[in-house]
Amino acid sequence: MKSIRDLPIKIIHEIPPVLSSKEKCAIDTEWFLMDKDRLHRPVLTDGSPNGFLACVTFCFNGEDVYFVTNPDDVQEAMDNVSEATQIYANCKFDLVHLRRHAHIPVRINKLWDVITLDRIMWSGLYSSFTLADITRRRLHMHLPKEDRKDFAKADKLTPELEQYSAYDPVATWHVYQHQIRDVLKNDPNALKLWAEVDLPALNTVMSMKGFKANKNLWYEIADENMEKKTSLQSKYDINLRSAKQVGELLASQGIELPKTAKGNYSTAIKTLEGMEDPNETILDLIELSSLKSKTTTYGRGFMENSVEPDNRIYADFNPLRAATGRFGCSKPNLQNVPNKYTDPRYRECFIAGEGNVLVVGDWSSQEPRGGAYLAQDQTMIDIFNDDKDIYIESARLMFGWELTKDDPRRSHPIKPVVLGAFYGLTKHGLFNNNQIPKDEGEKLLNKFFEVFHGVADWIDEMRDGREYVETIMGRKYWLNPYDYKSRNNACNSPVQGSASDAMKMAGWEFVKQWGDLEHSPIVNFVHDEMIIEVAEEDKDRAMTLLDECMVSVAEKMHPGVKARADIGFGQNWSAKA
Q1: DSSP code at position 45
Q2: Residue from 448, 407, 416 nearest 435 by CA
């Protein structure tokens, strides 16, 4: 395989010339001494800069590479290429850091990201979408990346690092040439998704403000959980991480644990939670399992490593983290903060700034509504259009149960069955994920599909051996016939991906109508929930606008199926009035 470095190039240490609107310019940046765990942030948690500029490189003909190394020249360089189509490989990283040194307006067109476009086109088929991966697949050329790690230690552009930096924009420019032809010929809907869903989502997350945190309350919770964990562990003089010792202890108490295929005791939390009449030891083990993540993932380090001098957390949101197109969040993950069912105090630690309020909107039964549209299940569609609760109505139609929202059967087992059916769960999945006995799970699923036969037919159709499935917006998810998860992915991906597409579009619609594309009031996305921080005097406007944006986007996506958003407000994330 040839190397990209076999291509002839010319390095030019000048600001690029003024480009016309017809030209295409690949842009890349490199930075010295960056913290690898904070690549998405221009500053570190102590307020100091996260590295400094090594170079901005520009290539608009596949051969000439213009190098800008002086931060004072970045504004002029970006102004000179402002009319051209700008091409990046991970524009979110480059634009966030370029804005340290230049005012770069939000672009809603003439912006291209080769990595994102390849993800849109081939999600599910490939597991990795780096520039090196795409260069290999599209150009059949090797893009060396070995020198990349040296930027973390270097403070000047050596000849080797200069050579490395020159070829990334060259590769990006050539990949674009191949990619645009492929998109126009084979997948024009990818352009629609980029323009209407994923580019707006990238702009949204790049303009998001940080989420303000109450560190002291978080530390109190973390210390309390650590004390509980230590106290529980001190009750036992065995190694509670040893399946053998735990199994022997329970055997001495008259409880025989099942064994794995290798003959070891099965002490998995799902095994313990599924046991009837658990004794004190089993209850302690279950609580210890819960405390494990609370004292590690959600211990003191969560705040210590994330909160910046303004007492806000700036997480790394990625609109295409999951293969389904679902939002992802990391460093830290604000989407997995324990909720009200686990411990509402964690969300109390995320607060509005002085004089502000948090407005929270979440869709009511978002995924089932999208699933009902995809399946064209009239029974389910009628439930939503009559403004009835899908879980209460499912229980009535399946078993004649007359439930209220407070009835525990609504949450378990009905809700897991309704959602699980769209996820492709079987009786085994309901047992593993929700501790529903397998015989009961089988009965529940059979009843569900008997009532909602349109959903059953649609699931069968999705699993008929096709190459890919699509969201409502036409986002493809390629199915691997050799992956045992493909049967579930065939029905889960269209539903989950459609929900994510709606969230991306609703977030952008809100920011656009709010009127400030560069300073979004959004502080968090959690799958079907959006959290916004606004001044108290703007609360009513924000609540009305958020409701309109969420409902209108959803109903435009699935016409004929009503959507509903629950909107509330409070001083912290948990206090939703």
Answers
A1: T
A2: 416
Cβ neighbours around 562 below 10 Å, total: 16
Q: Which residues, at least 6 apart from 37, have a Cβ–Cβ distance to it below 8 Å?
A: 305, 331
**Coil, strand or helix: which one is 195?**
helix
Token pair, residue 75, equals 């504004």
Note the pTM of the prediction, 2 decimals.
0.93
Give percent of the chain with pLDDT exceeding 90. 81
**pLDDT tens digits, residue range 130-187?**
999 999 999 999 999 988 999 999 999 999 999 999 999 999 999 999 999 999 999 9
Q: Sheet of 85-88: strands edge to edge?
A: 10-12, 64-68, 52-59, 24-32, 85-88, 111-113
**Whole-angstrom distance, CA of residue 261 vs CA of residue 265:** 10
Grouping H, G, I as helix, E, B as strand and the rest as coil, residue 188 is coil
Q: From CA 534, how far away is CA 521, in angstroms rounded?
A: 6
Integer Cα distance of 149 and 494 in angstroms: 38
Give the largest CA-CA distance in the chain.
81
Which of these, 319, 88, 84, 94, lies nearest to 193 by C-alpha position? 319
What's the CA gap between 41 and 48, in Å, rounded? 11
Per DSSP, 565 falls in state E
How far is the C-alpha of 506 from the C-alpha of 546, rounded, in Å? 8
| Angstrom distance (rounded) from CA 450 to CA 423 | 17
Task: State the residue for tokens 């020249």.
Answer: 73
Number of other residues whose CB lies within 10 A of the CB of residue 345: 16
Are 530 and 317 spatial neighbours (Cβ–Cβ below 8 Å)?
Answer: no
Closest CA to 495 of 420, 394, 423, 414: 423
Q: Report which of 509, 534, 512, 533 is spatially closest to residue 523, judged by C-alpha positions.
A: 533
**What residue has token string 């004390």?**
227
Tokens at residue 260, please?
A: 């794995």
User: Which residues are CB-contacts of 165 (< 8 A; sequence separation ≥ 6)?
Assistant: 28, 30, 54, 55, 57, 67, 157
CA–CA dist 78, 58 (Å, integer): 10
Residue 476 CA to residue 186 CA, distance in Å, equals 13
3-state secondary structure of 522: strand
Contact (CB, 8 A) for 428 and 438: yes
HSE, CB side, 13 Å, CA atoms: give it for residue 577. Answer: 10
314/556 Cα distance (integer angstroms) = 32
pLDDT in tens, 327-378: 889 999 999 999 877 888 999 999 999 999 999 999 999 999 999 999 999 9
Structure tokens given for 154: 């270097």
pLDDT at 577: 53
Q: What is the end-to-end Cα distance of the chain in Å, rounded?
A: 61
